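Box 4.2: Ligand-aware structure prediction
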Amino acid sequence: MVLNISSLLSGEKNKIDIDYMLSVSAENMEGAVNLSGVIFPEEARVTGAITDNAGYMRMTLSVTLPYIALCARCAREVSGEFAIDFERTVVPEGMVEDAEEKEEDFVVVENGMLDIDEQLSEILLLDFPTRILCKEDCKGLCHKCGKDLNEGDCDCPRTEVNPAFAKLLSMFDEE
Ligand SMILES: [Zn+2]
Ligand SMILES: [Zn+2]
């Protein structure tokens, strides 16, 4: 959504509420390697507000996005909901340099318009989990026979690994 915030800029209002649904798909998020194979069965709900406090404008947003993905270890289907809150300082064009000096996250308003979806794409690209597991301790599949080890051991010979070393190895799995 591109929001017209001219009523804030003119001082006519000091708050604009935001509440809309955003359609998201891995395909329309270009470069989102972490979203490949992830399906979004419902639209994202975006709520929040832009407030103006004596010329200091702040945008606060909450996003909830239901997803379906495959467990990175056992390939079982996992459904969940990604939720994130974030804030940005909203800066009118021409005042960008000041904002850069403050070294904080900010968005620039162009011709009174604020592109919220662009902010959301950035957040999803950066913060959506890169690796989804069906459960923290998912045992994954046997590398030899492909059996789901969550359902029990298979008969494949296991190389005995020192438990301390195995723990270290598990830190590298799927990398
Ligand atoms: Zn799993
Ligand atoms: Zn096996």
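In the box above, the bound molecule is zinc ion. DSSP finds four helices and seven strands in the chain.
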